Amino acid sequence: MEQDFCLKKKKKKTMPEVCYTLIPLVFIWGVMNVRVNYNLNSSPLTLNTSVVDGHEGGVTIFVALYDYEARTTEDLSFKKGERFQIINNTEGDWWEARSIATGRNGYIPSNYVAPADSIQAEEWYFGKMGRKDAERLLLNPGNQRGIFLVRESETTKGAYSLSIRDWDEVRGDNVKHYKIRKLDNGGYYITTRAQFDTLQKLVKHYTEHADGLCHKLTTVCPTVKPQTQGLAKDAWEIPRESLRLEVKLGQGCFGELWIKVPQFMIKYIMKKLRHDKLVPLYAVVSEEPIYIVTEFMSKGSLLDFLKEGDGKYLKLPQLVDMAAQVSPCLCYVYTNRFLEKKRIKIINIILGAKFPIKWTAPEAALYGRFTIKSDVWSFGILQTELVTKGRVPYPGMVNREVLEQVERGYRMPCPQGCPESLHDLMNQCWKKDPDERPTFEYIQSFLEDYFTATEPQYQPGENL
């Protein structure tokens, strides 16, 4: 099946105008994934190495938070704890630095370092992180009672929160959150009877004594290295010969998807599209056939994970939480105008195998009206896949029958074991009038608070 979108050249558009819309989201969900290796022995990438000596405020020493292995001849390899003098920090995500240990100059990823002796350099400091994300990390399997992290407060500017994993007979494993307040003189406290000059001293105190907390602090919550923005500085476009195709990981509904789109648009989106729940885009080969290099997802596709991986053992709280993590991504994409009503159109989108009718809102499938509300419909379908551990939607129906039945008002019944309250949310996503469907902000809030506000009496069943 082929969809033809034409890019009309009426007047020269600015970068933001051109990049408001790339492609309806339902087209993106099925692209082919191929695992690749980046060939470090290929010709080095050409980098812009213009430098401004020093920066305002004098020299600040930075310390490495993680190990890093150089990918080009222009960047530096380093180990956690290595110290740097920053030569130029004005060029975004990659800074030019000088290693104090080796004396070598090169580029380093800016999110791998922090000012030495600052709170940002502490292992236990996780920066800007929401309560739910902190709970997800702390409740990971293998973590023990007393494991902790410190993060920025969501509600009070200039304050912090201490999050600790706990256990009790009523709630089982859970997370307690304590607000760390700041004194006028610069000190910190959780309770006024125990005040400290620095956050470091506060954390040290509570690692030695619970002193009113649910448990004394034991170990820092494990974390993973953040993704770099791009493979290297200004390395958004890479030569085809630097990639070696190894294993085909799979493909989606469309077979191979080819997009003929202006090169500068791809690079612009790659640099701007950043969210911790989105797979990061690393680089592009802009000559046909176009390759877009992304982070490798070790668990594979969500469908395979639910049907054949560890996902088949998950219970309803974990499945609902997975759905809750999808919704803010879609909010982000639309809020930042990467996807919107078709302000521009794209040349020659050739869809290989089949169009995903069962996942597509009727106004989009029949009339090509792709909006954020049509993605809300698709999100409702995703919820059924989660609670059924990967069952194909509308079982027993072919595509034509699905379109006809949905237009007549048919909606999928409540899956076995699924609470009616969750099925009600699905039905809201499948309202005939797109304007009556909920927003992703509402969906996220509903799902994140689902087991406290909607289903507080939930008990695990045989499957869910």
Automatic annotation (TrEMBL):
Residues 57-118 form the SH3 domain. It is an enzyme of class 2 (transferase). Residues 177-451 form the Protein kinase domain. InterPro entries: Kinase-like_dom_sf, Non-receptor_tyrosine_kinases, Prot_kinase_dom, Ser-Thr/Tyr_kinase_cat_dom, SH2, SH2_dom_sf, SH3-like_dom_sf, SH3_domain. It catalyses: L-tyrosyl-[protein] + ATP = O-phospho-L-tyrosyl-[protein] + ADP + H(+). One of its GO terms (cellular component) is plasma membrane. Its EC number is 2.7.10.2. SUPFAM superfamilies: Protein kinase-like (PK-like) (SSF56112), SH2 domain (SSF55550), SH3-domain (SSF50044). Residues 124-221 form the SH2 domain. One of its GO terms (molecular function) is enzyme binding. Keywords: ATP-binding, Kinase, Nucleotide-binding, Phosphoprotein, SH2 domain, SH3 domain, Transferase, Tyrosine-protein kinase. Belongs to the protein kinase superfamily. Tyr protein kinase family. This is Tyrosine-protein kinase. It comes from Aotus nancymaae (Ma's night monkey).
